Amino acid sequence: MLPRRKHAEVGITHAETWKARLAAYLGLEHNVVLAASADFLLGFGEQLWDKFLPKYLEALGAGTVAIGLFGATKNFFDAIYQYPGGWLADRVGRRRALQMFLGLASLGYLIYLISPSWPFVFVGLAFAMAWASMASPAVFAVIGDALPKRRRAIGFTVQSLVKRVPMALAPVLGGLLLEAYGIIDGIHIGLAVAIMMAAITALLLQRIDLPIPTLGSLTMRDVWKVFPPGLRRLLFADVLIRGAASLVDVLIILYVTNILGVSVGKYGLLVAVQLMTSMMVYIPAAKLADRFGQKPFVIGTFVCFALFPIAIVLSTGFISLVAAFVLGGLREIGEPARKAMIVDFAASYARGRTVGLYYFIRSLSVTPAAALGGLLWTYSPSLPFFMAGFIGLVGTIAFVATVERQ
What we know:
Layout: H1 2-26, H2 30-47, H3 53-59, H4 64-92, H5 94-114, H6 118-146, H7 149-181, H8 183-205, H9 220-225, H10 229-248, H11 252-259, H12 264-292, H13 295-313, H14 318-329, H15 335-345, H16 351-366, H17 369-379, H18 383-402
C-alpha cells in the first residue's frame, strides 16, 4: 500500500505543478483573476440590455437625432471619467476605487429601470458609465501591478477573453427577453439582473489585495509630458479609428433591424458571432505577436475597424450580416498587445493616471462622432457607415506611416 500512497502523492504534486505552470502561463495571478471575474459578472448583467439601449430610447419616444446624441453623450462621459478613474485608483488604491465605481454604476442601472421617458436615460447614463469608464484604468493598473512585463500581454488577453464571454452570450439572452416581453419590459428584466450581479461583484472586489501606490505630485500636464513619442503616435491613430467606429456604433442596431428588417433576436445572435470571433483569435494572435511583433496585428485590427461598417451596408440579408460581424470580431485581433504597450509605457507610480489620460484624450476626441452619425443618417442611413470606413482607412495609414515596428 505504501508505494500506492507515494504514487498518489507524486500525482498530486504533478497536478499542482501543472496548474501552477498554466496559471503562470496565462497570467492568472490572484488579483488579476478577481478583477477579471468582476468584469465577467457585471458585464453579463450589462450586456443583457446595453446593445439594445437605442431601441429602449426609441420605445420611450426618442428620435434618431436624440439617439445619436445619446451615443455622443456616452462618449463624452467615457472621456471625462477616464482620468478621474485613474487618479482615484492611484490615490485610494485599486480595490477602494473599483468599489466606488461599482456603487455609482449600480445607481445608474436603477435610474434606467425607473425612467418614465427617454431624457431620464441620459441621467442614468451619467452614473452607469462609472464602471465602464472609471474602472478601466483601475483594471489596467491591477494587471500592471500584479504581473511582470513579459506576462502582461497574455494577462490582458485572458482578461479580455473573460470579459467577452458575457458580451457574446448575454446579448442573445437579452434579444430573447425583448422578443418575449417587449422592448421596455425585457430591458427592465435585464436591468434587475444587472443590479443583482453588482451585489455579487461587490463581494469579489473586497478580496483584492494590492498596495496603494505612492501618488507623486504629477499634474495632468505632467503626465502628458512623460508620454513617450511612440505612445503619442499610437494615440493619434487610435483617435481616428475610434472616431470612425463611434460614427456608427449606436446606429448599427437601427440599420440592421429597421433598414435590413432583421429581428432583435437575430441581432443578438450577430453580436454573439462577433464576440465569439474575437475570443477565438485572442490567444493565437497574442502568441504570434510575441513572435513576429505587435505592429502587424494592430494594423489588422485597424483595417477591420475600417471595413466593418462598409460590410454592414453592403449586406443584403442575415447570412451576409454574419460575415460582416465576423469581420467585426476580428477588430480585436491586436487589442491585448495594444493595451500591454500602454501599461508598459506607464511609470508604476502613475500607471492609473497614464492609462486614464490616454483614454480621456481618445474618448473626448471622438465624442462628437455619434451625434454627427445621427445627423448623417437623416440624409441617408448608409452615409455614416461609408464615412466611418473612409476615416478608418485614414487612421490605418497614419499608424502604418508613423509607428515603428516593435
